[in-house]
Amino acid sequence: MSVPSAPSKRAAPDDRRPAATPRRRLSGAARRGAILRGALGVFAARGYDGASMAELGTAAGVTRTVLYDHFRSKQELYVALVEQQNALFLGHVGARITGEGSTSERMRATIDAVFHFAQAHPAAWALLFGAMTGGDDAVADTRRALRAGQVEAVAALLARDAHEAGLDRDPAQMAVIVEMLIGALTGAVAWWRREPSATRDAVVDAAMELLWTGLGRPAAERERR
Amino acid sequence: MSVPSAPSKRAAPDDRRPAATPRRRLSGAARRGAILRGALGVFAARGYDGASMAELGTAAGVTRTVLYDHFRSKQELYVALVEQQNALFLGHVGARITGEGSTSERMRATIDAVFHFAQAHPAAWALLFGAMTGGDDAVADTRRALRAGQVEAVAALLARDAHEAGLDRDPAQMAVIVEMLIGALTGAVAWWRREPSATRDAVVDAAMELLWTGLGRPAAERERR
DNA sequence: ACCGTAACCGACACCTCTGTCGGTTGTCAA
DNA sequence: TTGACAACCGACAGAGGTGTCGGTTACGGT
């Protein structure tokens, strides 16, 4: 990606560390944590291909080669980061799912938890739900595996409610619906990011309006009167 | 992206043209068309960053440098292709939207048209709705602009129905809902691609079940009896 | 038949990127 | 205090990528 006549507009991937930090040496574990912390922002902003080891290094406060003392390759670093953030996401949402209340109340709480995560950890959200492309085959496999885990988790939730409601859906239809749910929430977050003035409650309301109530409800109401 | 010890698994971006074609010279317009046709598959499969000019060239039946006789840069080629395919998409869906039938029938027809496009033009779908990452800032701007156009088109459709139904939504809520709709359909297509045995009708059914009926409807039915 | 336009290509210049290697030096335990 | 482990870095090698330039030659208009 080099354009001699018209230089790239991307931020210069400067190899220098910020001069502010006065050259500290950290323990292995601490540096590894710093690398992951910095990599989160870089990968989220530039995607897998767009992020260079040089930029990843400066974000962690070290030079490029240090990364290879803690991770075998860029791919391994990325996979470790994504798995870490996915675990955080599942923990965050799982901790907020209560078994109490009506079905709609529980669904609302779950959606709210998802949006809360997106609000509190925007970079992690971008890493996990944006940027589904780029990278090696192994990277794509990792993403697929995590997505499958998310789908399974949501499907289990829905299945419980569907069973309690006394109806059992076709499992294939269930899978599509879950995939659409995730896609819909991803779209909602993308919009919210462009319109940050909206409150989380308003976004949750809109999500419930579409996913719980359904677009057909108003028409049905109209027919009834 | 080179790993000396473990060579990349990607297909070798061979600069040679397929020996089968016996060296034909085309008119400018024809070659330009061939380039766009070939680029569709390559960009869809590898994404913007992953596609190299060499591979784009072989896909079009010429060497790399010929591309620069027809497009000023990789970016310009990509933008031209995406705009072309987006126009095709809007035309395809627009042609199938009928003003007749009930609101739910019209919505079903629209969703069916979208899925039909995804089925008939998988590469175009991947180009337009997968791979929202990678590339230069200008590329990202193009994608944003096209997405905005799609959102506006769908919003206009919905607004008409909402108005006819005698209710006017908050425009902000409307925008979120449209974004979620697109995300949901994208998710459904992604699932369908992994499970091609499902019929289009079945996928449309699932989509209507979620987006039109809503997940809450079964619960409501249960409460009523 | 021919001639000029432009489609096509090989070679070149330059850049960025990943990953390796050997040396240097901060830091902690003994 | 001192020695060794490992955190850190500069320089190197190799690959691949984009875009340019000048020459060659197929092909259509006359």
UniProtKB/TrEMBL annotation, chains A, B:
**Residue range(s) of DNA binding per entry:** 52-71
- Coiled-coil positions are none
Q: What's one Pfam family the UniProt record gives for this protein? A: TetR_N
List the keywords (alphabetical). DNA-binding
Query: Residue ranges of the HTH tetR-type domain?
Result: 29-89
Q: Work out whether the entry's keyword set contains Transport.
A: no
Region Disordered: start and end of each range?
Answer: 1-28
Keyword Cell division applies:
no
Recorded hits in Gene3D superfamilies, A to Z, give: Tetracycline Repressor, domain 2 (1.10.357.10)
Q: Which PROSITE patterns does its entry note?
A: HTH_TETR_1 (PS01081), HTH_TETR_2 (PS50977)
- Protein name (database record): TetR/AcrR family transcriptional regulator
Organism, scientific name? Patulibacter brassicae
